[in-house]
Amino acid sequence: MPGAAHARLEHIRLLKHVKRASFAAKSPGPMSTAILLADYDNICPAVRDRSADEVEQHADTIADSLARLLSGMPAPKISEVELRLYGGWLYSDGTPTFRANCLLSRLHVMRSRRHGVRIRPILVTSIAQANGRQLHGTCRSRHGRNEQKMVDMMIAVDFLYFAEIHDGVVVVASDDDDLVPAYLASGSRDRPAHVVVLRHRSVASAPNDRHLIDCRIDVHELPQALKREIR
């Protein structure tokens, strides 16, 4: 069988596997609380945030688009979301970055009900198990450009923690394959949480999607409003 035809057949088989697994996945009660771990830069990487207005617009797009997507999920129905925003928020001396200051001033506006879902935003500067111990140096300057550090690990650690203790829905909004090992680790135990991964790539298009489905993880594409931001 030619390579292209074989790849297409395997893709179709995986999509069927996804549909079967979605019916078998454990769903919480009729209304559920979600904890959403969002990688600010990863889900909209091309946004430069050159002004406070741009930061506010970007943050509102994230909150509104994710609330719209979660409100439209058939099961479980989500009534409230703790939106945890991860990113390079602090320099090595603990000083907040420009974007961090803009977002902090915007959180009270993001804290609202959107599309029937109540949003409770948090700018994450420490892992959940060591709340209050701020991690400095999540933003570092390299060759004149800022880069985020430790953020993927913070998301992975928090994901495993919430998947273990939360009996509602745990959502990760990131296209980063560095988080796949954490997803698989969560599937090796009898976790109470229903896990959802939101990303730009389509379902069954990534090399390890079969493993995610085997671990009872639902994969959905990010909203078009966020995709337009990165074109």
Shape estimate: globular
Give average pLDDT, whole number. 84
Helix-strand sequence: HEHHEHEEEEHEHEHEH
Q: Give the strand tally.
A: 9
The main sheet comes to: 7 strands, mixed
Number of helices: 8
Helix content: 40-55%
Main structural class = alpha/beta
Radius of gyration: 18 Å
Q: How far is it from the N-terminal to the C-terminal residue, by CA?
A: 36 Å
How many structural units, i.e. domains? 1
Strand arrangement within the widest β-sheet reads: 3-4-2-1-7-8-9
Which stretches are poorly predicted, pLDDT < 50 over at least 5 residues?
A: 16-29
Q: Which percent band covers the strand fraction?
A: 15-25%
Please describe what this structure looks like:
The structure is a single chain. This protein has one domain. The chain has eight helices and nine strands. It has 231 residues and is of the alpha/beta class. The strands form two sheets. A seven-stranded mixed sheet has the order 3-4-2-1-7-8-9.
In short:
The chain is α/β, with parallel strands linked by helices and 231 residues long. It has eight helices and nine strands. The strands form two sheets. Strands 3-4-2-1-7-8-9 form a seven-stranded mixed beta sheet. The protein has a two-stranded antiparallel sheet with strand order 5-6.
Helix and strand layout, with pairings?
Layout lengths: L2 H22 L6 E9 H4 L8 H20 L5 E10 L11 H13 L2 E2 L2 E7 L15 E4 L2 E4 L2 H15 L3 E5 L6 H8 L6 E6 L9 H6 L2 E5 L2 H6 L2
Parallel strand pairs: 1-2, 1-7, 2-4, 7-8, 8-9
Antiparallel strand pairs: 3-4, 5-6
Helix pairs in contact: 3-4, 5-6
